[in-house]
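Below is a filled-in request sheet from our internal design queue. Each sheet records the structural input a requester submitted and the sequence that came back. We keep these sheets so that new team members can see what a complete request looks like end to end.

REQUESTER: design group, bay 2
PRIORITY: normal
MODE: inverse folding
CHAIN LENGTH: 633
BACKBONE (tokenized):
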């Protein structure tokens, strides 16, 4: 993993989930508990303010902790938006009084969570307005202007509209004086330049699609679904008019039917994502570079009611196909965005992950073209002809009828070397070596497909890796990395699953893997570890936690006796690469490359083979309690 020099707190992980169906019911289930918790927090804050004093930092942080507990413990509660707003409000107060940058970043992040996740809540316009005021404190006029325009555009009748209108009129004049024909001139402490929509990428299959909108800078946006649930709208505020070639995209053989980009007005650019049926969506913002990720999933079909005899026969035949063969079941090429031929528009972004040509060996002999893209093995899969544009995509294959699949993700690659040891060893090379060994070991032990996000030294964006695993309908996702720490004595192995970080170190590890710059160690932890995330996937989180525990135990046992490697246990953090995974997923940190002794071990083929064996045995042990069990018999 990369160690990046500290500078300013960046948005580590902003996950905002808006679900077409089910969210309201889930919210109702916990509304009473969230209301009671919110009342206690609000009463404490009111009592503090009623004393006629501003309160100490410790007093305010105590109130903040109570509001945090509301949205952390009741993410779908009726009072969660109120608790979010009050948390942002208190962070704003802390920043204005003590001027700690982490307070400002936390406030801005929480306000964005509220606006994105609860766009129709009465407090969302206040959150957006308050965000603009925070930007003004630092003289960031362009960002403030964008927030105030957002209030007028999205909440024209809200309580903050009149104030926002006055601020827009004022700032329009001030910013207008600083314009030149070439670009907007911003104050010296503000990043200059327009924000543009640079491109669109996408991957998917008949029941899932991930769409990535690439932008120059962080941008205000709102996502929503139509009443029928068959389209998603993403409105971007204050972005350049996108290039003509990006106006309409028609993917083939995936759940998204089309992506249409249009300019609604001088300040709104609309991205309309039409689906081939009803579905749900979620969004997340990633940085370095800036992009907006939109995941859409087909709605689960109404369960059929076949006879018990028919059901048993179908399952039995499916089980024979996937589980009794000694070779991995043949599979068609994942229906990713850009199939060759057909009528797809040439301007649609090509996916970086595509299958290799069929090979007979476990590890391909023919390397992929030398370019900044990735190829993923499909173990002898045959290509499918592309469907015509506009034709309905294939329905998801029932789980009982498709081949079982494990996706291995070697971290970093290409222009991203990851962490580098004192002796010059690069994380990307070690991760790939271990991953190839792990694949070979799994293929020897498991009657299933084993795919890799990359098999050579190529760069793949983090959001693409999980998208690939979802597209091929993987049953397990394992990301392989090497740890690093400023303290050269730090060592050992540890395994992570996706969940809010519980410690500064866990947050630090996630920030490095997410390629995010960090604050100095004496700064408070950024609050993003506690922000709402995909609570809809609680089952997957629990499964990932179990898988992490079993694999960590197996790996630590394998390395303890001959190499005396420390068992650092199972940990949790918000990793980009695990976000949105529809299967149990983990990230394994296989020793510290920053530790001279462990860097030396990581150069050893025997040591890397033992790591691969320990992980493979853990996979087999975990699979005994899942639907993969028979594949390891």
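RETURNED SEQUENCE:
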């Amino acid at each position: 993993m990369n160690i990046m020099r500290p500078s300013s707190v960046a948005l580590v992980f902003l996950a905002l989930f808006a679900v077409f169906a089910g969210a309201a019911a889930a919210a109702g289930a916990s509304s009473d508990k969230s209301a009671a918790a919110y009342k206690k927090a609000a009463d404490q804050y009111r009592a503090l303010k009623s004393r006629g004093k501003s309160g100490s930092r410790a007093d305010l942080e105590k109130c903040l902790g109570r509001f945090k507990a509301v949205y952390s413990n009741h993410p779908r509660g009726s009072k969660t938006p109120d608790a979010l707003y009050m948390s942002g409000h208190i962070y704003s107060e802390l920043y204005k009084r003590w001027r700690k940058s982490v307070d400002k970043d936390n406030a801005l992040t929480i306000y964005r969570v509220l606006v994105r996740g609860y766009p129709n809540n009465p407090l969302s316009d206040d959150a957006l307005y308050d965000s603009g005021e925070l930007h003004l404190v630092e003289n960031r006029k362009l960002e403030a202007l964008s927030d105030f325009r957002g209030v007028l555009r999205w909440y024209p009748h809200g309580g903050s509209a009149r104030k926002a209108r006055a601020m827009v009129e004022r700032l329009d004049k001030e910013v207008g004086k600083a314009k030149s024909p070439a670009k907007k001139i911003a104050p010296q402490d503000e990043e200059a330049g327009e924000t543009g929509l640079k491109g669109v990428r996408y991957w998917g299959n008949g029941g899932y699609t991930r769409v990535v909108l690439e932008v120059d800078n962080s941008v205000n946006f709102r996502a929503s679904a139509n009443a029928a649930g068959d389209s998603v709208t993403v409105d971007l505020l204050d972005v350049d008019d996108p290039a003509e070639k990006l106006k309409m995209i028609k993917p083939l053989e995936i759940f998204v039917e089309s992506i249409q980009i249009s300019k609604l007005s001088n300040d709104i650019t609309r991205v309309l994502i039409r689906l081939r049926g009803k579905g749900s969506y979620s969004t997340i913002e990633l940085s370095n570079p800036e992009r907006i990720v939109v995941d859409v999933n087909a709605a689960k079909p109404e369960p059929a009611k076949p006879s018990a005899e028919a059901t048993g026969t179908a399952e039995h035949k499916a089980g024979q196909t996937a589980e009794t063969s000694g070779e991995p079941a043949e599979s068609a090429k994942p229906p990713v965005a850009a199939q060759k031929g057909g009528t797809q528009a040439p301007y649609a972004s090509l996916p970086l992950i595509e299958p290799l040509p069929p090979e007979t060996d476990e590890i391909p002999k023919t390397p992929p073209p030398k370019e900044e893209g990735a190829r993923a093995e499909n173990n002898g899969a045959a290509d499918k002809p592309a469907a015509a544009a506009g034709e309905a995509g294939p329905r998801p294959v029932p789980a009982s009828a498709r081949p079982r699949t494990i996706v291995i993700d070697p971290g970093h690659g290409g222009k991203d070397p990851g962490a580098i040891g004192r002796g010059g060893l690069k994380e990307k090379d070690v991760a790939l070596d271990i991953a190839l060994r792990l694949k070979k070991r799994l293929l020897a032990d498991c009657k299933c497909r084993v795919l890799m996000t990359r098999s050579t030294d190529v760069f793949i964006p983090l959001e693409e890796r999980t998208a690939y695993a979802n597209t091929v309908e993987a049953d397990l996702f394992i990301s392989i990395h090497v740890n690093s720490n400023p303290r050269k004595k730090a060592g050992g192995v540890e395994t992570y699953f996706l969940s809010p970080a519980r410690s500064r170190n866990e947050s630090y590890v996630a920030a490095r893997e997410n390629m995010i710059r960090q604050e100095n160690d004496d700064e408070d932890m950024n609050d993003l570890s506690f922000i709402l995330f995909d609570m809809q996937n609680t089952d997957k989180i629990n499964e990932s936690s179990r898988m992490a525990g079993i694999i960590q135990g197996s790996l630590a046992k394998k390395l303890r006796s001959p190499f005396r490697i420390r068992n650092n246990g199972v940990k949790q953090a918000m990793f980009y690469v695990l976000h949105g995974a529809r299967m149990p997923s983990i990230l394994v940190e296989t020793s510290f490359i920053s530790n001279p002794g462990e860097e030396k071990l990581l150069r050893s083929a025997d040591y890397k083979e033992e790591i691969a064996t320990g992980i493979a045995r853990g996979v087999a042990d975990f699979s005994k309690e899942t639907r993969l069990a028979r594949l390891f018999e």
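SHEET NOTES:
- The chain has three domains: 14-176, 194-353+385-390, 405-632.
- Residues 2-31, 180-192, 307-394, 520-525 have pLDDT under 50 and may be disordered.
FILED BY: M.R.
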